[in-house]
Design a protein that fits this description.
This protein is an all-alpha fold. Helix content is 68%, strand content 1%. It folds into 3 domains: 370 residues, no CATH class; 274 residues; 260 residues, no CATH class. Helix 1 packs across helix 29 and helix 20 packs antiparallel against helix 22.
Amino acid sequence: MASSNKAGSPPSRLVPEWVKRGLRSRRTLKTWVRCCITFIACMILLVNQTTLVSMGQAGFFAAIIAVMLPPFLPFSLYAFLILTLAVGMFLGWAWGCAAMAAGLSVRDVTLLAQQQADAQAALVGDVPVVSQMQVFIFHGRFLDPRSSAVFGAFLFIGAYFFGLLRAHYPSLTITAIFGTIVLDVMCSFGPLFFSPQYTIASMFLLPTAYYVAIALVSLAIIFPESVNHVWLFNLKENVITPVQKMINLQQRMFEVDLGSLEAWSELQTVSQAISQELVAGVQALLPQVSFAALEVSIGTLSPADLTVVSKHLTILSSRTTGLSAFLQTVHGGMMTESRSRSNDRQTLLRQRIREKELRHQHDLSTLLPILSSASTGLRAQCLKSTDTLLEWFNECNSKRWTNFMKKLNTAHAEDRHAKLTTCLENLEKALSEFKEQERAQLLQPYERFFLPETGRLPEDLINDPTNPEMFTARTLLLCFMFADTLVAFTEEIASLLRTAIELDSKRRKPRIWFPVSFSKRARKAAQGRKDEPDPLSMGNTKDLTSFKERNASVSSDESDATKAPKQKKGKDPRKYQTPDALPPKSALDWFFVHFAAFCRYLRSPESVFGLRHAIVSIALWVPSVCASTAWFAYDNKALWALIMAQVSLAVYAGEQIASFLLRVAGTVIGLLLGMAAWYMGSGHGDGNPYGVVIATSALVAPFMFLRLCSPPQYTAFWLLTGVTIVFVTGYSWIDTHLTSQMVSNSGVGVELGWKRALLVLIGFTAGFIVMLFPRPSTSRVLVRKTLAASIDEFASLIVSELEVFLLEHESHLGNLKSERQSMKSHEVMGTSEARKNRTEALGMKLMDASTRLTALAPSLMTAKFEPGLRGKWPGELYNKLYANQNALVFYMGLLGTTLARLDPNWCDVLVHQTPFLNPSLLSELLSTLAILSSSLANGLSIPGSLPSIGDRLIYHHRMVHYQQKQLLPGGSNTRGPQPGEEGLDSIDTTHVGLFEVTLSVLADDQLPIHSTAVIALANIFRLTDECGAIIKELCGETTFAGFESLREEYLKREEAATLGHHARPSEKQS
């Protein structure tokens, strides 16, 4: 409760909110302490002479891994991570040994004999032969071009393979990176030797083994935790707590002055932050369920129980976000009014509606207190229910060992179960009272317009909707929307409570849970998610400018029994086919189809990434195997430049300039701090072990904490700063204390630091150069193409949301005309379980779209600082477009939640008595979205003939209104609205599908749901037009002389025909 009360506290400018959150989190502090102790242990091994000699000249590599992969995960999850690391290193070692065996087999025996003879002649008598031979080897005196070529071929193939592994399986990035590191060692040093040296890789394998042992022991004895425990902890911190913040925010909304745009804007900003926090928390929790099933744990809830709870998270997230619909809609209206300065039709209509609301006392200032009073009880009970859930999850997640060893306290278990049951009963009672009694308070200001005997409007108001005495229900619909979103949210909280009650009745005491279906779950866990960030790479694991991953499963832990039936027939609506060839028929056709697919794969982003990975490896490997540069490469440790170049690559280009500068900054700061740590711990000597450990740990610890709790976009900076500090102090210590194994000595402190930092920069520069091809990517290009791809995805989401709704409506009406339609309807709808899975899948797509837009926010900031070679960047327009797209995602989520709850009769009202689902209008909407997306992505001008969706909505609304009036008795004699009297903002009152308004209709439980759907659709259409206007400013518009006047002429004719009027002769002539 304490955290939830701070829902709207303004963020501090000095200390970021994520730092405060990390400092307040006991788990983060415990994890940080564990990571620091592990790092200190690795530093102690470095300064201890015995262990340093055992680890070898790369002894500091253990401390580097402690910075790169600190023990921040639960034991089983970290063990799985270490297993992937070990597999990668062994694969690289095996492939490197094969390269060495092949390279030695092709050596020229005559050349080798001559090289050995020359080396023997160059020996000096006073110097040990072994030391001299080492110098000869690393000077490249035994290099053989044929052997080097074989090593190069093996390196190219191995780097390409590890690149593909990294691209296709993001969760195996650790496997690919460390496998490549070992392969680099074998292929960089192997060609220099004339005899088998299969243990060269031990220079990295031994420090890694030391670190793995320390890390696993620290996880077992220093604040040990399981995935089960961490999952429940994150459920509380990242899901339930934001839900409570959103509930508390509603009370703040009711207390804000309606005339203060600034106050409403602040609430809107807080609401968006809470929604983003909730979506990020849910997306982080869903894939972790698979790992919970891979461990042995002690707890009340099993991994299967966590899976059951996780199925509520997507819906809970969407319905919690939906609570801010009222706030967002009111704020959007206030922003529109603040920007409107012209006397156009829309502005005049808004003024007319507002005047009518004030005259009848139906304005928001009148209804908002009523809505607040009516919903107070239900909102309070929702908050109590989340407190109860929070308390129950806390109890399930605490005192695991103590309760496991103790005998079950039956009285306490029954009291806990009774508390859950009582909470559910109170919540259901409050919900029932709100729906049956409290919500009816909103109708009291409107009851005087209806006849007491019949509950209908007087005839004069029915026959003349434009009568000044007729009320407008715009504000009532807004209040109904709030009531509907609150009811939907409460129903999901009640559903989660029922799940908790069911689990509590089965899980009364902690027990030991063993893994089940290990192989299948491990495979799913290894596949991971495409959007998992790689902190070192300058880019992304998925293309932010493309939404090709449209068929991802909702939950990686979903069992086979609950999966939706596969669609074996019918066309995939998103499947692309070539227009240049017919489907294959013969075996030869199929061969060429597969050959073409193979060729396309070679051009795929994953294959191109593997090729980049191999090319940059060969480019930085060549100096190590050339006789003239071999010693220079060895003396200056060029291997690290090669490693840094490989880890800096990414499958898809991101904000390359910003990413590169961030890594350069981290390296430079790490260099300065590393030199400071060395001189603080060593002074002018060769290093004091106590001082070096203390100084290095003190400087690395803050960056390790920031790495644990910072947003992903900053992780690379903290990580590289810590790695560079260890580079400087580690190499300095080795150069002064391991002289027996060192062939060259680069010095200490400043003398060494700038060289090591330069290696890192060379590696990142090489990776940056390779990533520039085939074309460079900047923040500005990334922003534009991501926003364009999001518009295209919105069209797909609209189709997905309406598809099932329309087919179910068609099935309800019995209008399936043919067996083909029936088959299609059955395939799309399937069972109720399939429909539920489809709804969850749509929710995941919306969350994905929202996450991508959230991840784009830093790019909008960095784009301002990029050099504008072609002029000033229109950042303000892109920010407006970004805000509109966030609003589109919100209203699409609101629409999806609403359509699933409409009953068949009200579905018919929405389909046939409103203009929104008119096929012609939907076609125009989808076509407009496609044109806007293509125009923005390619920088093309928008066609001048592109219609306004708002104008088309007005036209179809009038058409529906006119047709319905003609169907009513005496409808042809009633006075319809005159041309120019209606606009987009007038499609809100009794005209939106409610042609027979009665008091019973306004009291219908389905009307709030219908109102929410109407408002969501109206805002989607409005935002589409606003996006179009912004893109017109960005990309321009083609000219079509005479088209506007022709369109106005035909618009007048359509309006006259629709409203039952005839165009005047003068109008016809014009």
